[in-house]
Amino acid sequence: ELPCSIRSFSEAAGISAAQVLKTLMGMGMMMNINAQIDQGTAELIAAELDLEISLKSQTSLEEDLIDQIEERADEEADLVPRQPIVTFLGHVDHGKTSLLDYLIGTRIVKGEAGGITQHIRAYEVDKDGRKITFVDTPGHEAFTEMRARGANVTDIAVLVIAADDGIMPQTEEAISHAKAAGVPIVVALNKMDIPGVDSNRPMTQMTEHGLTPSEWGGDVEVVRTSATTGLGMDELLDTLLTVSELNEYKANPNRDALGVCLESEQQADRGVIAKFVVQNGTLKVGDVVVCGPAHGRVKALTDTLTGEPMREAGPSTPVNVTGLDQPPGAGDRFHVLDNIAEAREIAETREFDSKSQNLSGITTKVSFEHFQQL
Ligand code: GDP
Ligand code: MG
């Protein structure tokens, strides 16, 4: 573990502290046995003494544990079908939020306010006992950021195109994002209630952008919708469920949960509330969680729509989580660990690392250009 004292370095390396001190002195560094040395100094000593020692920092040791969790493969026999996670993408004002409002409002809470929100919303919608998880993001940045950080949660992209407006710059961006993510695209040709709209024009534009509608012999399903009248809503859900069945999304509910934080906030009365989507395994009340620089024991799980308490959240489930010590970032992955001390150590190391990175002026924000090259 580095940085560490000269005493523990010499013990770990199997050489006397006196020899370490002498070597340091030879390099012009006067130190005592309790002084701390960092990775670079340890490497210098190792080179000087011809030592073959493994100089793994604390950070990488801990992240190895996280990597092991990520890479732990499931037995085929443990996998069961899971519901698809669907994200709405498209040009601003083409109706992404309205479509989700319609789907939620008519099926779960009648009369839910449908205003434009700055939040990333994630809800479960039930269609004849079959579920779909919908994610609505305020813009592409959220989608881009999350994908660039390796936390892509989307199985299927619904590309929303207002029939009266057609393909616009952000529609083009959305198409390239969905293609880069390698997820199937279903088009919702929205605002079909507007008098005189002609679906031929946007569908011709689609073809020009490499998306040929299935009714024209291509492989992209186009559903004509209206978030105002409800036109095409059942068809949209059925189409998504069909795409989901074809792709056979699976997960293992009988393992510790892992997934991604969509957003989080600090509330005065309830503390930190984080919105997670579980990607594999089952998250339970009492689980020890680490997520970015945050950690804690899950105090409560609640339904993202109704606020009802939940005892556990299985694969593809969006859930609000309380019990973390600080709000994690959007796109931070979460993992369940065996004990709280381990979780604290990982979280603290990450926080320390990000602070020292900030101090040295290195930024970890990934640019749009970088994303496009991925
Ligand atoms: P977003 O930016 O893609 O989330 O778009 P919104 O859902 O906020 O919708 C933008 C505007 O279009 C709002 O004024 C909606 O009421 C309106 N709108 C959304 N869907 C439809 C639709 O199907 N038909 C009509 N006529 N208006 C719609
Ligand atoms: Mg919106």
UniProtKB/TrEMBL annotation:
Q: Where is the Tr-type G domain?
A: 81-248
* Location within or outside the cell: Cytoplasm
Which positions in this protein are listed as binding GTP? 90-97, 136-140, 190-193
Which residue positions does the secretion signal occupy? none
Q: Where is this region: G-domain?
A: 84-232
Function, in words: One of the essential components for the initiation of protein synthesis. Protects formylmethionyl-tRNA from spontaneous hydrolysis and promotes its binding to the 30S ribosomal subunits. Also involved in the hydrolysis of GTP during the formation of the 70S ribosomal complex.
Q: Which family does the entry's similarity section mention?
A: Belongs to the TRAFAC class translation factor GTPase superfamily. Classic translation factor GTPase family. IF-2 subfamily.
Name of this chain's protein: Translation initiation factor IF-2
Q: Which organism is it from?
A: Rosistilla carotiformis
Q: Which residues of the full protein are shown?
A: 377 to 750 of 966
